Amino acid sequence: MTAPDVPAAFAGNSMHIHLDGIRPHHRNEYDIGCAIETAAPSVVGSLCAAVSCALRNLASADARSPSRFADVHHWTMAAAPALGLTPDQINYALAASPLTDAVANLLEGKKEWTGTATALLAALAKVGYPRMASTPRALSQQLTTTPLEMFGIRMEKQRGDDRNIRLTQTPEICVGETRS
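Above: the chain sequence. Below: its structure as tokens.
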């Protein structure tokens, strides 16, 4: 599956999520309405608990964010105990970006890729991610500010005549693990 054809300005300000496919069992509108009515008190109660927890912890929550969504990160960190999330899970979820998806897709099946930012822009377009950046320089800057390590990708910029970028797949780690 390839990324949707979205202008780079929008793609850089989006969060990608994966949703499981719809189960083959189809329900009618009445059954769905009943399920929503049954779940509503629990959902509202959980939301109230999360907001209450966030308001209580906001001043002491870690405000450093690995993502472009600093406010969302801060509030989610403050609500983490009520949501049952760890800081690593929150960091991982909010740091994901179309660029990390694109680079991971490029490296799928190989351990490394080396080339210029211009070649990388073309390679990303070939694997279904056109317009990741407006220019090679913008792509290079995006790579520098994206926490690729969190997603098992190491980047090295090699200075010299070619100014190559080397992307390497690192062993996958589970959320919550730390590298030794």
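Confidence is low (pLDDT under 50) at residues 174-180.
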